[in-house]
Amino acid sequence: MPRRDPRRARALVAAWLAASFALSAVTDWRVLAAAGALALALFARGAGAHLRRVARVVLPLSLGASLVALGLDRLAGRSGPGWDALAALNLRAALLAFLALAVLARADVLAAAERWPWATRVLVVVLAQIHALRLLATDSLLGLRSRLPRRPRAREVVRSAGPITGTLLVLSGRNARDVADALKARGF
Amino acid sequence: MHVPDGFLSPQITIPAYAVAAPLWAWAARRHFGAHAADALPTMGTLTALAFVVQLIRVPVPGGTSTHLVGATLLALVFHPLAAFACEALVLAIQALFFGAGGVTTLAVNALAMGLLGPGAGWLAFRAARGLRLGDRPAAFAAAWIGTQVSSLAIALVLGLQHALSSRYFPVPLAAVLVATMVPSLLLTGVVEGAYTLAALALLRRAKVHAAP
Fold first, then answer.
1. Residue A78 banded pLDDT, cuts 50, 70, 90
2. Which secondary-structure segment (H or E) carries B59?
3. Which of residues A158 and A25 earns the better pLDDT score?
4. In contact, B68 and B188? CB cutoff 8 Å
5. A19-38 burial string, b = 16+ CB within 10 Å, else e?
6. d(Cα B147, Cα A146) in Å, to the nearest integer?
7. Does the distance separating the beta carbons of A170 and B96 come in below 8 Å?
């Protein structure tokens, strides 16, 4: 659990955002690899868990999109962004995500943003909704599976996508109101 | 539609930040203050939905992708400036945690997907209402137009970058236009329209105050 020290949290979050901006401007994969090594050395505690999460969530999305884009360019006979550009892109995505996870494990973002209550409210409501949507989608899929004696086929998932999306939106709206009321009651 | 880091030079990204920063400040003051407490839950829900739908991306040749945006819905329910601020938040979370889009290109992406597209959609909705077209066709048209304007803006920015320096972006404008606009015109815009219609119907049924 991060320490609740607003000044330290603000400094760490500001340094993180500045580093993210600087790293985003780097296009050479070798520089990014060196920066990655430095980040690993600086944030060694918990690095294994953060790297596993990056490998599970960020890299498949980023690598998959890069490879499909590269394949489409090759099929179209065009010289799109080269291998080195795509390597830099994926390395940067992984590094930024690792930094975000490492900083959030060390800094209390709510404490850092307490000077700006509107920012806190927006951040909390949006992050809470993203989390709630993930949980609700998992629950909906489990509900769909439990009603069928076998694994739902693609057609069944598509057919039930409408009602599931509607339910998700309504439940998410209720959840958002609860979160916003709780924030208001706590003075945000 | 997200332009990743490294595809645009500072000649484009810095002016984009210069334009976007005051608009973000204005939007935050106008739409996220204490007076906006009642609208915040719906805004948060729709922002989270925009985040989710934008994660489902189909890559297109030329290094970018096509996907639903969900920001025109925010513009129709609240205001284009609110959509701009919410879209920037979505893009920031995506860039920092998922490697989608980028930090240096955040302002360009936000201006294209959060302001120009939803702004055009909002204007189209008002114009269609003025012509007594009916709310549903107007909302569908608004979402479709919003998607096309966002896609076109992204394609034009990439084309401009190619003209300025092909070292950053080697694909010429004509190829980017085809790769971006064809899926957008044929598929993404239609799906975005259907998504916007369905979400608006649900919001109306749930009696959300801000729904048009």
1. low
2. strand B58-59
3. A25
4. yes
5. bbeebbebbebeebeebbee
6. 37
7. no
* A91: amino acid identity, one letter: L
Higher pLDDT, B32 or B59: B32
Which tens digit of pLDDT belongs to each residue from B161-198?
A: 999 988 888 888 888 888 888 888 888 899 899 989 98
Q: Do A125 and B96 touch (CB under 8 A)?
A: no
On the question of pLDDT at B210 being above 70, the answer is no
Residue B27 tokens, joined: 């939007």
Per-residue pLDDT at A174 exceeds 80: no
Nearest to A76 by CA among B182, B151, B143: B182
Instruction: Quote the ipTM score.
Output: 0.71
Name the B residues in 77-106 with CB < 8 Å from any A CB: 86, 89-90, 93, 95-100, 102-105
Those residues whose C-beta lies under 8 Å from the C-beta of residue B95, and which sit 6 or more positions away, are A20, A24, A96, B5, B101, B102, B103, B106
Tokens of A31: 């520089």
The answer to whether residues B196 and B140 touch, using CB atoms and an 8 Å cutoff, is yes
Rounded to an integer, what distance in angstroms lies between the CA atom of residue B48 and that of residue A26? 30
**Integer-rounded Cα radius of gyration of chain A:** 21
**Structural contact between residues B169 and B161, judged by C-beta atoms closer than 8 angstroms:** yes
Q: DSSP assignment of A2-70, as one string?
A: -B--HHHHHHHHHHHHHHHHHHHT---HHHHHHHHHHHHHHT-TTHHHHHHHIIIIIHHHHHHHHHHHH
Of the candidates B41, B105, B175, the beta carbon closest to that of A173 is on: B41
Distance of CA A148 to the CA centre of its chain: 32
Closest to B48 measured CA to CA, from A132, A58, A110, A60: A132
B202: tokens are: 């649900």
Cβ contact, residue pair A78, B97, below 8 Å: no
Spatial distance between the Cα atoms of A168 and A133, rounded to a whole number of angstroms = 7
Using CA coordinates, name the residue in chain A closest to B42: A173
Q: Which of A80, A133, A176 sits opposite B61 (nearest CB)?
A: A80
Please name every residue paired with A3 in a beta bridge, in sequence order, or none if there are none.
A107
Contacts of A176 in chain B (CB under 8 A): 40-42, 44-45, 48
CB contacts, 8 Å: A175 with chain B = 45
